[in-house]
Structure prediction request, 138 residues.
Amino acid sequence: MKRLSILAGACAMLAACGGGTSTGGKTVAICTTMLSGDAEVESDLSARDMSVADYCACYAEGLNAQSAEDKAAILKVTQILADLREERGLGLEEAADLLDDSGAEAEFSLTRAEFETAGEYVDTIRRDLVRDEGLCAS
Prediction:
């Protein structure tokens, strides 16, 4: 199963929560770069009365509950996706597909474990956010 395709799909499913330390601000900025301008992501969020800002605030807030190792992996994948989108003009899914390639470890210094940790994090956030309770329930 392609974890980054799951990551891309899960990004479109998230809802809002508050966030806000300086580290959170940087995380929100990276997340925003990763998602903004992707028509599919923005359309999916809009259909749920959400925005990229809503998603990214919750994404940043959720990182506070992660172990240091997992947080580092999640941030690394997020940064790589944001950079790929910006540098190569790719959509989120296209960028994710590059990371799901067998050459990703050498090209991006990204391990399969880091990639899967990020995918699992997004899946967890998505599940929490579609319920009335959970990490970022309003």
User: Anything to note?
Assistant: The two ends are 32 Å apart (CA to CA). Confidence is low (pLDDT under 50) at residues 1-22. The first helix runs from residue 3 to 11.
